[in-house]
Design a protein that fits this description.
Layout (H helix, E strand, L loop, with lengths): L1 H10 L3 E2 L16 E2 L6 H67 L6 H7 L2 H16 L2
Antiparallel strand pairs: 1-2
Length: 140
Amino acid sequence: MSNSNSNSNSSLGDYASDIEFNETNRRYAKVNRIVLDKDSDEYRRRRERNNLAVKKSRNKSKLKTQQTLERVKQLKDENDELQQKIEILSKELRLLKDLFMAHASNAHGTELTEVDLKYLTSPETLQEVPTKLKLDHEYQ
């Protein structure tokens, strides 16, 4: 078998053929390739083109990776800002609900309890009021 293959390979001239397959490389397709002398101008030209293509591909890959990392950072920053706004708005909502409940209780003749007054006038609750003013200013 190798005798007939060597005859057919020699008749191909500059082409090498993957005619013989063994079990390990059966999954690869047959490829005819031109065998070039490493000192030839054609070989050098092809190598130069290939090197440029590889360089271009690597640069493109690096750029895409860099852009992805920048986008991830941007989204993380935006997420942090939104989480802070959620926290501020949640505190403001709690404060407004408590004020509403206090007002509704007073409107029906029920007085605020001492606990309610302490909570509504606590330093923590009062510190949230300037935050609300800051938010109102942001939306103007």
